[in-house]
Write a structure and sequence with these properties.
Length: 220
């Protein structure tokens, strides 16, 4: 039987039950080439061009194998580096979009909003779990851009409120209209984790739960 190509050898070994792998390694490829040369028709041997084509195919397979090994090593290095960088974020504070804040009974709640334009006034309402307005704070006129604010944990009468989850509603005056703003809260990073399938790291924020690192606006 004349065997002129690697595919012929694979087909023959497949029939004999000797080919148990879907992918060929370098040793497998060399064995197939030797078998091809031993079983070729001596009266019609493979010409030089065909032989060089087979060698080029072998070089391609070998090169791809080396690239795969290098890429796997690089991926492992990047993952380790990402984990080390992520671990350094623990105990720092992340700024994330959130309509609520977890007040611990002592630490002031700090937040930030982005004004699309200058305004005559910005207002922050702190709302309790039963829907009542605990505190209403006026930040006065503000220029366009980032505006920071802080709530000291006291109500409108100046009394301390109990620990718990509070909603923060921020708005600004746009002409004669009062427009709502997306609120951002600073929260402590308790832990960092990396998804098993790769991608952005996740951060566990105190009182807010889990966020993707890509959703964090800033870290301080």
């Amino acid at each position: 039987m004349e065997l002129r190509t690697i595919s012929d050898i694979q087909a023959l070994q497949g029939k004999n039950g000797n080919l148990g792998k879907e992918n060929l390694g370098q040793n497998d490829f060399m064995k197939l080439m030797l078998a091809q040369m031993q079983n070729q028709d001596p009266f019609s041997p493979m010409d030089n061009a065909e032989f060089l084509g087979q060698m080029a195919q072998f070089s391609t397979v070998s090169g791809i194998s080396e690239i795969n090994t290098s890429m796997a090593s690089l991926a492992d290095s990047l993952k380790s580096s990402q984990m080390l960088n992520a671990a350094s974020l623990v105990d720092k504070h992340a700024l994330v979009a959130s309509p609520t804040a977890a007040f611990d009974g002592a630490t002031p709640v700090t937040g930030r909003v982005e004004l699309p334009s200058s305004t005559s006034g910005v207002q922050v309402e702190v709302v309790g779990s039963n829907g009542e307005v605990v505190r209403r704070m006026s930040l006065g006129p503000q220029a366009a851009g980032a505006v920071d604010y802080a709530w000291d944990g006291r109500n409108s009468s100046g009394n301390a409120v109990p620990a718990g989850e509070y909603q923060l509603k921020v708005s600004y005056f746009s002409g004669n209209q009062q427009e709502a703003l997306e609120n951002h809260i600073h929260a402590q990073i308790m832990s960092v984790s990396l998804p098993s399938q790769g991608g952005s790291a996740n951060v566990e924020l105190k009182g807010l739960g889990q966020y993707q690192l890509s959703d964090v606006k800033s870290i301080s």
